[in-house]
Amino acid sequence: MSESSLWSLLLVMTVAALAPIASRLVPGRPPQVLFLILGGMVIGPSVLGWADAVDIELLSGLGLGFLFLLAGHELDPRMLRERAGTQALLAWGVSAALAVLVVGGLEYLGYVKAFVPVAIALTTTALGTLLPILREQQMLAGPFGRYVFAAGAVGELLPILAISLFLGAYDSWWEALIIASIAGLALLLAWLHKHATSQSTLRITVVLLLALLLITENFGIEAALGAFFAGMVLRQTSSAEGNQEFEDKLDAVGYGFFIPVFFVSSGMGLDLQSILNSPGRLLAFFVLLLVVRGVPAILIYRKTLGPRQRVEMMFLTATALPLLVALSEIGLQSGVMLPENAAALVGAGVLSIAIFPFVAARLHRPVGQRPVRDPRVP
């Protein structure tokens, strides 16, 4: 590892170490991920220029993989067959229809060039990012928690499938081969989990994520899909007896190291100059995230959730970031997305992470109740 890479990693981990401290000191306890991204912006090329995201690209890719794997590990597929799951699917379908109409209009006006990536982006929910925040704010307990989790899982899984289907970089038979290899790796991992210690399984999990990165070259979207699927398989096949120890270690490695690196790297890669040149684009995408992804919850859940809970659901489902980063990279690499729109889309995701969960938590928390602090980094 070069001196430049070591210096960048040192700065990134310094930001990661300071983020939870900053979160505790700021009134209202904003999510730690906000400070991870802001710290990355400060040390990155757009501000101080002390560190470069290229130096930690591999670790950032693993962080993205861990984010989706942990989200998949939390998901119980049976939930999607319950009322919470069917309503989540219906709400996402409404969001997808709205996204097609809205982005189609923007493309007609010349505001958007990359129709498919932007339309998919407006239907995403950052479940992996939300999980630690929701735990900390005690929002996953009871029936409401199941509705939130189902909505988040659908808002993460279906956009991943849409990206693989509409933006895949491979021929159809290559695509099928890649997905089949991912499934095989995940099943192998699950079988080994039954016959190994939690420490060995954790090492095998890292091997799986590295294999996914190698297969898809620079954590393509199939890696995110594969990581999510692997997490689901692990949940279904892991033994209840040793599962807690494995989960604790998985959380410690993921939230303690790799995932913070991904978020700091996201901040480092944010093009602040493009955002400053066109702030209206950022605000437009920020509002569209809420309208296209969040507002359908007000209608769909009217018979199952109270008015306040539906507003909470609106803000939570509109929270997005990891897939926005991936979609922006895909759009830029393919040359179909305007650089200013890519920067504004990621910037809107950063704003959604900073604002929407905070508002939802304030609505959810009874007067005088204090949340239980979760030490994990979102």
From TrEMBL:
GO biological processes: proton transmembrane transport
Source organism of the structure: Nakamurella multipartita (strain ATCC 700099 / DSM 44233 / CIP 104796 / JCM 9543 / NBRC 105858 / Y-104) (Microsphaera multipartita)
Broad class of where this protein is predominantly found: membrane
TM segment ranges: 6-26, 33-51, 57-76, 88-108, 114-134, 146-167, 173-192, 204-232, 282-301, 313-332, 344-363
Coiled coil regions in record: none
CC terms in the record's Gene Ontology section: membrane
Bilayer topology: Multi-pass membrane protein
Identification of the protein by name: Sodium/hydrogen exchanger
Pfam families referenced in this protein's UniProt entry, alphabetically: Na_H_Exchanger
